Give the backbone structure.
Amino acid sequence: MKFNLRKWFLFRTYIPRGIMGRTILLVIIPAIVLQAVSAILFFDRHWKNVSQNMLDTFTGDVDIVLLMLDGKLKPPPGRTIQNFTVEYLRMNVEVFHNRIFRKKKNIYPYIAINNANKLEENFNRKFHGNYNLSFEANPSRVVLELPYRGDLVVIKAPARRLFSSSIGVFFIWSIVGVFIGILIVIPFLRKQILSIKMLARAAEQFGKGADVSDFRPSGAIQIRRAGFAFLAMQNRIKRFNANRTNMLSGVSHDLRTVLTRMRLELELMNAKGESKNAMLSDVSDMEKMINGYLDFAKGIYIEEKKNQNVIEIIRNLIAKFSVEKYKINFNVTCKNKNGCDELFVSIGEQSINRILSNILENARRYGNGKIDVTLAFDVSSFRITIEDNGKGIDAEKYDDVFRPFYRLDEARNLQTGGSGLGLAIVRELVLMNGGNIALGKSEKLKGLKVVLSLPR
C-alpha cells in the first residue's frame, strides 16, 4: 500500500488547527467509534434476538386466534373470542364476513427498519404471502389483515408487541450524550485555552518591547508553570538589559570624554592646514562610529506608542530629504471608506521616523536622483514601498545587508557609507513593532526596492 502524499495533505486541511477543535475531535471520534462497535457487536445482535422473540410470540398469538376462529380452541366459559384476545392477548380481533381480501403494500413504522425483512420472511412463510401489514400512528399499533374462509380477519395490536424501540432510543441517546458531553467540556476547555492565549499574547507583547507586568499565570498547573517560567525569563532579560545599558552608558561617557579631549588638544595645537583638518575629520568619524556602535549595542529602547499619522510623517520626511537634485514621488492607495488622507497607527514616533529616515537616506545616497514612495493600507495593515534608480543590490546579498557591521563598501569609508548598522537597527525596530521588511529589485526604476509591512 503506497503512501499518497497528496491525500495526506488534503486530509490535513480538514483537521482543525486550534486546540479546542482538536480536543473536541479527540472526544467525538473515540466516543462515536466505541458506540458504533458496541452497536455492531452487541446492540444489533441483541436487538435482533429481542425482535425475533417478540415476532415468535406475536405469531403464536395469531395462531391461537385462528384456532379459536376454526373452533379447535374455545375461550373460557362466559367469554367471547374478542373479549379473550383483548384481555389476555392484547389484540383486537374483528371478522368481516364475505369480504374479499386484496393484497396491499406493507407499511412499517420507523422503528421496524432493523427487523422488517425478518418479519416479512416469517409472515411469508407462515401465511404464504397472503397478508397485509399496516401501521396506525395514533395510537401506535399494527394492523394485520388475513383471509379466512372467504372472510377477512383484522387483528390490531400495539406496535410494541412487534417492534422494540428501546435499543434504538438507547443508541440515539448514546450519540446525543456524546454531544452533551462536548457542551459540558467546552466551557472548561475554553478557560484553559484562554490561559494559553494570554500567555502567548504576553510573550508577543514582550517581544515587541511592551510592558507586560500585569500578566498573571492561570489555568491548569502545566500552563501555570509555563506562565511562571515566562515571568522568570522576563525578569532575567530585564536585569540583563539594565546591566548592559548601565555598562554601555559608562563606556560611552568615558570614550566621549577622551574624544572631546583629543578634539580640544587638536584645536589648541599649532598645526595648521590639511594635517590638522585630517585629524579632526578622523576624530569626527570616530565619534560617528562610536555613536553607531553604542546605539546598536544598547538595543532599541522602548518608547511609548501613540497614534501617529503615518502619511504626515512620510510627507515631512520627504520634504526634509528632497533637494533640487533628487525627485521623490509619493503615492497613496488604500481600501478605506473614510478616504486616503489619514492613516493613524499606534507606533513610536521616533521609531517610524528612524526607520523611514534610514531607508530614504540609503535611497538618496545610492540612487541616481529618483525615488518613489508608495503607501498602501487597509483595515488591518499598511505597506510602505521605497524604490530608487540606483544600481541596486545583488539578490544573494539581501540577507547580508541586515547583519550588524556588514557593508557593501569593503573599504569601510564613512564618507561612502555608514558603519553597517543602519539596516540592522531598522530591522530590529520593524520586528519589535510586529512588522516585516524585505528587499527586492524595482521593476519601475530598476534599482533597489524596500518593502516595509506593519500592522495597524
The radius of gyration is 44 Å. Residues 411-415 have pLDDT under 50 and may be disordered. The domain at 306-455 is CATH 3.30.565.10 (Heat Shock Protein 90).
